[in-house]
Structures are given as C-alpha cells and as structure tokens.
Amino acid sequence: MIGATTSGELRAHNRVRLLRAVHDCGATRTRSQLTRDLNLARGTASVLVAGLAEDGLLHEEPAREHARGRPTQVPGPHPRGPLALAVDVREDAWELAACELGGRTTVLGLQPHDGTPEGVLGPLGDALAAHRRRLGHRVVGVGVALAGPVRHGGLVDIAHLGWRSVDVPQLLGLEGAEGPIVGNDTAFAALAEARRGGLQGVRVGLHLHVDFDLGGVLVVEGRPLAGASGTGAEFGHMPLTGGDRLCPCGAIGCWGMDVGANALLRHVGLAYGGGRGRAQAEQVLATSEEAVAANARALGRGVAALVNAHDPEVVTLSGHGVELYERAGQALMDSCGPGLMAIRRDHPPRIEGSALGWRGALLGAMESVFDAFLTPEGLEKWRENHPDQGRDTPERQNVTHSTLKGAKPL
Ligand SMILES: [Zn+2]
After folding, report:
1. What are 300-318's pLDDT values in tens digits?
2. How far is CA 174 from CA 14, 68, 132, 161, 278, in A?
3. Ligand 1 centroid to 249 CA: how many Å?
4. CA 34, CA 13: separation in Å to the nearest integer?
5. Distance between Cα 293 and ligand 1 center (Å)
6. Residue 2, pLDDT above cutoff 90
7. From ligand 1's centre to the CA of 193, what distance in Å?
8. Which domain of life, per UniProt (predicted)?
9. What secondary structure letter does DSSP report for 177?
10. Which tens digit of pLDDT belongs to each residue from 115-141?
11. Centroid of ligand 1 to alpha carbon of 268 (angstroms)
12. Residue 212 Cα, ligand 1 centroid: separation in angstroms?
C-alpha cells in the first residue's frame, strides 16, 4: 500500500492489484480465490470488480466447474478491453500478435522480410498503424522484441544483419507518446519465463534463447538484468567454448558462433548467416545427429561456465534450445558436467526446455506493455479514453481468438 493515503488512492491501488492478479494467473482464478489472495474484504472485491467491468477492463464468466452452491465467477479480460500489440522481430521474419489481459494471444500477422532496417520496420510500422486504427482505444501499447542489443531509447544493433544504431521507433513511425517498448528478444523471453514459465518464483535463474545464434541473461527476483545501458542479455558473446572465429559482433570466439541455426548449417557445410536458411537448419536439426550433438556440447560447455559464475537455481532454454535439449540432452549434460566446479556438482541446477517455446519473446513484449499499463495512471488514462457505449464499434475492434502456445515460427 505504498503511497496510498486517501481512500481514492487506496481504491486506485486495489484496482491495479486486482487486474495484476487476474493477468498474472492467466485469468484462471475465481473471484473468491482472488479475494483471499489479495486479502480483500468480500464487499470491497465486489465493488472493485463491478467498477472494473463498467470501465471495460474486466469481464466475469462462470467457472467451468464449481462445487455445489452459488456458481463461482472467474474474472477475465473484457471482450472490448485493453490489448497489447506485441511483435517478435527475428532475423528472417516478424510475427505480430494482439494480447489480452491474462495473456491470451492472437497472431495477427507473420511476414518474412529482407533483413534491411527499412525492409523490416517499414512494413511492420504500416501493419501496426493499421491494427491501431482498427482496434482504436483498445491498444494500450506496443512491445517489440529484436534479435540484438537494444540501447535505451530503442537504438538497435543486429550484427548478423549489419544493423548499427538503427532507430527502431523512428523507422516504425511510432515516436513520442505512441512510442513502442523496444527490447532484446532473449531478455523478453526471460521475462516471460519469469512470469509464466520455468523461472516463476525462482530467485536466481539463467535463461538462454537459441535461434540463429544464442542469447542469454541472468534473471534475478523475476527481472532479467538489463545492464547499465540496457544491453545485457548477451551471454552469447562470451568466449566460452574456446573457438577462434570472428563473430559479426566484432569479438573473437563468441559462444553464439557454436550454438544455433548458423552453427548447424556450418557443421554440414551449408551457407549460413544474414538470417537466411531457417528451413535448412531445421532439416539439419531433425536429421543430423552429429550436428545436433556438436551444438548441444557447445551449449553444455557454456552453461557450465555460467553456472560456475552465477549459481542459478534453474537454467531454462527457449527457441531451438528446447529441441537441442530434447534431442541431445545427454550430450549437453555430458559436456556440462566436467565444466562444473566441484562445489557445483553435488547440486547442479535444473536444466529445462521452456514450455513457452518460441512464444517467449512475444509474451515478454506483452508483459512489458502491461507492466506500463497496470498502474493507477495507466488505468486512469484508459478511463479518460474509454468511449461511450454508443461510439463503440465492437465488431471492428474484435480480435479472432486462436490461443497459440509454443508454435514454431514460419
Ligand atoms: Zn559475438
């Protein structure tokens, strides 16, 4: 109740707490469970829910199963409630989704791109503008995940694509108050993991995201460590495997040179780099045991080094990391084990594939948007912008639901 001194402030604070709880549990808990979780009086909870429903922020549905007696209500997203637009910009394509409170995600578009800043961000900016027009006041923010370090303000470097200090908000045509929240894909995937995946409730965890190469970040108390200028999540650019290849980032011997789609392609003698060759890499992943084992061994070796340094409770893997662990878990562990300090070997951390799969970056972008929205100020602004019923156009502002979880890109 920090800062809540008047009854109005207390109410605003409790509105945020209730919406936050509904969002974090994925709109699965009943009103009475939430009332208990938040230590609210029953009457207070009723008044809060009614007010939030009136504002178009919540909608209650009867629970699917309930004990005898009065049917139980489950607060969830309002059918015309707030939406976060979330984008995962990968090296070869971008995926755009609308996300409701509670985390239900609807993919609005998946588009390959040519890898140039203008070729990626021009059409993406057009798509975002079109969806904002269509969805109107429902869009409360845009979150964009990118496969490279992101400095505060949205300046992005993607070494594989030759991007240097690309001003992402400017090229998207979204600046000022409409500006997007731009973040690194691994950091966003790690945030999603902390909120909805294997790092929930974990004090110190390590998350690794494998796509064309790999990114990694330490997650402390649910927060990926961002670094002083926002460009953390770059464990992939540490010389952890003893290689001596020049990495596109400018450093020599980066771990990411040996893990991911580019390394798989290189292993079998195929062309790689520039965000090309995803289909071929997936073919290699499915058919070449040797290439997969080499990738997994490199992954394990780096994991051991990071575990020695950071002592995490859990190591989670997303993207191709899930398949590497499933297909060559033994090779990964055999390579990781000898690299661990003796004091780490008795209680090594759990290593697990993410249940969020490829959706982590997208979901993390969504979480960042809702983190900014779920504040007394954010909800007050929503109230001011919320149109009268007569002016609302529900048909046009609807999104078609298709709950997607863990599906592969492209
Ligand atoms: Zn590098």
Report:
1. 999 999 999 999 999 999 9
2. 32, 52, 11, 22, 30
3. 4
4. 15
5. 22
6. no
7. 24
8. Bacteria
9. G
10. 999 999 999 999 999 999 999 999 999
11. 21
12. 12
Domains of the chain: 7-77 (1.10.10.10), 83-187+359-397 (3.30.420.40), 200-355 (3.30.420.40)
The distance of Cα 38 from the centroid of its chain, to the nearest Å, equals 26
Q: How far is the CA of 173 from the centre of ligand 1 (A)?
A: 30
For 30, half-sphere exposure in the C-beta direction (CA atoms, 13 angstrom radius) is 13
Contacts of 309 (CB under 8 A, 6+ apart): none
Cα 110 to Cα 358: distance, rounded to the nearest angstrom: 13
Which residue reads 């020049």 in tokens? 246
- pTM score of the predicted model: 0.93
Please give the structure tokens belonging to residue 79: 């059918």
CA of 113 to the centre of ligand 1 (A): 23
What letter does residue 409 receive in the DSSP assignment?
A: P
**Alpha-carbon separation of residue 289 from 94, 217, 329 (angstroms):** 29, 28, 12
C-alpha span between 336 and 88 (Å, rounded): 30
Of 320, 322, 315, 145, the C-alpha closest to 219 is: 315
Q: Residue 378 belongs to what H/E stretch?
A: helix 376-385
For ligand 1, the distance from its centroid to the CA atom of residue 27, given in whole angstroms, is 40
